[in-house]
Design a protein that fits this description.
Length: 296
């Protein structure tokens, strides 16, 4: 199987929880390095080979780096029978000063575009409310009010960073979904394949945030799909009328630790006690065991 996800999503923590080990997964090469692990489910255990993809880069470079690593992991005879795709919604962060600068540039560009679009919309709405074309003096007098409303409606920097993180996660998943379609879509590979979306770090979300988390990651045809939900639905539809991989979307918490995206963002703390923390692990392992061939 293959564990893949955006940078700092929690791939190492998930690997160590299912393999009962610890530390950072050092062996992540472009040559399909595998680790022998024992998956323990509800009724027994099964041996498995696990490949953990290398960490990705922020910005345009991460695409090329990922594709190089995936080439070895997704081409026959190496393509995996199963994939755990690790997502963390807002709970990802940059590692280096260079990456932080890239993310800040992306955030600033996004904010500038949002403010410009909002200012234009507010000015047009004000003009439409008048029964005459405003004079330059009237416009100058109105601009401070418009600017104040733009400030009020512009998301905070924390919200902007979170949106960037979710956007990057979608771009990343779109790439891996495309490659999995190419890998599993030929022949009978999809018939025995499976995909688990591991929504990790759920212990850092408060109870009132969990429903929002479900709506974002679990496609529901009765409500508008989230960006991630649309990508996941498109992925399944991509198999057409042929065999489709088994799919599960599961909550997960790899390790209990406080988390801070950036120094300017408030720290998130674990909301689960030991009982609930262990229950998440058992549920995940049981489903993983079933997907790996253990009886339910």
């Amino acid at each position: 199987m293959m564990i893949v996800g955006d940078r700092f999503a929690g791939k190492s923590a998930l690997f160590h929880r299912i393999s009962n080990s610890s530390g950072y997964v050092q062996q992540r090469t472009k040559d399909h390095t595998t680790h022998k692990v024992v998956i323990r489910g509800r009724k027994g255990k099964v041996n498995a080979l696990v490949a953990v993809t290398p960490g990705q880069q922020v910005g345009e470079e991460f695409v090329d780096g990922d594709i190089d690593a995936w080439n070895a992991m997704l081409q026959p005879p190496n393509y995996p029978s199963g994939v755990i795709y690790v997502v963390a919604e807002r709970m990802t962060r940059s590692w280096t000063a260079d990456e932080i600068n890239i993310v800040e540039q992306q955030r600033a560009a996004m904010e500038a575009g949002q403010r410009e679009s909002l200012q234009r919309a507010l000015e047009e709405a004000w003009r439409d409310s008048l029964d005459h074309e405003p004079s330059p003096e009237e416009l100058r007098a109105k601009l401070p009010d418009i600017d104040q409303e733009v400030d009020r409606r512009t998301p905070s920097q924390s919200e902007q960073y979170w949106q960037l993180s979710m956007d990057n996660e979608c771009k990343h998943f779109e790439l891996i979904a495309r490659r999995l379609l190419e890998s599993w879509g030929n022949g009978s590979a999809a018939q025995n394949a499976w995909l688990i979306i591991a929504v990790t770090k759920v212990d850092l979300h408060r109870r009132n945030q969990l429903d929002e988390l479900k709506r974002y990651y679990i496609p529901n045809p009765s409500v508008p799909l989230s960006p991630f939900g649309r990508l996941l639905s498109d992925f399944i539809r991509g198999f057409g009328s042929g065999p489709k991989p088994r799919l599960a979307i599961l909550p997960f918490a790899g390790q209990r630790e406080n988390f801070r995206v950036l120094p300017s963002v408030a720290e998130a703390t674990s909301q689960l006690d030991d009982t609930r923390f262990d229950a998440l692990q058992r549920t995940f392992n049981n489903t993983l065991g079933e997907f790996c061939g253990l009886q339910s």
